[in-house]
């Protein structure tokens, strides 16, 4: 089989399968066949389809980000991290707002699963900082966190780093500040990506695919600009081409 033309860029695109059922999700997967992108399964699809669909994606050879954003007491998150790691996903997440003990418990749950089953590969465990739909005003006035979004995101990133996590979810705008604070190998996974002219919808902290990669972010999460496009494959390929201009193969 010939290798996909922009493999290095495609492997840094995470396509969000935000669908209500497996039929629609499978249809998109078929449409994207041959593109070596990451696939993200979030709450909508996981609550409808469960772990079986995650296993199906793994059997098809995809790298899978299970985006369940755990945020609960440490003991519960430890158990959740254990179960998720046993599923064999490549990336999963918790909310940094759950705090130090909760994030350490997530690491412990993951490590327990890895010690029980040596066939498992260690997933990336990342922490959500401030949702990309959250504006400066919302964070200050509704949520009640003072200061700038960037400072809050970096504070959460530092805490996640101290707890042994591999990286964070943030908007692409905060990527450079996170890397400066936590080091270049601390992974940034960035939703809030919109090609020029695309509908912004509920996202508030956004960047184009090219600028997000040029800013040094590791993975770009893209949902509706692909899933809601008239031609999703073409939309994905255009995004990958734009990313590719800033990726060193
Ligand atoms: O801060 C966050 C954390 C997660 N997401 C998820 O990423 C995708 C983005 O989808 P779009 O359609 O491209 O907006 C979606 O699955 C979110 O749950 C996020 O947007 N922001």
TrEMBL record:
GO molecular function annotations of the record: orotidine-5'-phosphate decarboxylase activity
Keyword terms: Decarboxylase, Lyase, Pyrimidine biosynthesis
Annotated catalytic residues: 69
Annotated Gene3D superfamilies: Aldolase class I (3.20.20.70)
Catalyzed reactions: orotidine 5'-phosphate + H(+) = UMP + CO2
EC number: 4.1.1.23
Pathway recorded for this protein: Pyrimidine metabolism; UMP biosynthesis via de novo pathway; UMP from orotate: step 2/2
Listed InterPro entries: Aldolase_TIM, OMPdecase, OMPdecase_AS, OMPdecase_bac, OMPdeCOase_dom, RibuloseP-bd_barrel
SUPFAM superfamilies: Ribulose-phoshate binding barrel
Record family assignment: Belongs to the OMP decarboxylase family. Type 1 subfamily.
Protein's UniProt name: Orotidine 5'-phosphate decarboxylase
Species this protein is from: Paenibacillus wenxiniae
Gene name, Swiss-Prot/TrEMBL: pyrF
């Amino acid at each position: 089989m010939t290798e996909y033309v922009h493999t290095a860029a495609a492997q840094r695109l995470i396509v969000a399968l935000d669908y209500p059922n497996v039929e629609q999700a499978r249809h998109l997967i078929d449409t994207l066949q041959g593109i070596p992108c990451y696939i993200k399964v979030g709450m909508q699809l996981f609550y409808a389809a469960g772990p079986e669909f995650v296993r199906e994606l793994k059997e098809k050879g995809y790298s899978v980000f299970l985006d369940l954003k755990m945020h609960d007491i440490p003991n519960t998150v430890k158990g959740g991290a254990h179960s998720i790691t046993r599923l064999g996903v490549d990336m999963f997440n918790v909310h940094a707002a759950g705090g130090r003990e909760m994030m350490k418990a997530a690491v412990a749950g993951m490590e327990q699963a890895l010690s029980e089953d040596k066939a498992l590969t260690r997933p990336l465990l990342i922490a959500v900082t401030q949702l990309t739909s959250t504006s400066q005003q919302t964070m200050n006035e509704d949520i009640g966190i003072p200061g700038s979004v960037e400072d809050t995101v970096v504070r959460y990133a530092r805490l996640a780093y101290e707890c042994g996590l591999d990286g964070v979810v943030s908007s692409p705008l905060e990527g450079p500040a996170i890397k400066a604070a936590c080091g270049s190998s601390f992974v940034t996974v960035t939703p809030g990506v919109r090609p020029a002219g695309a509908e912004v919808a509920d996202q508030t902290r956004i960047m184009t695919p090219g600028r997000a990669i040029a800013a040094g972010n590791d993975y770009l999460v893209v949902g509706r600009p692909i899933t809601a496009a008239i031609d999703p494959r073409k939309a994905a390929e255009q995004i990958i081409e734009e990313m590719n201009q800033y990726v060193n193969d």
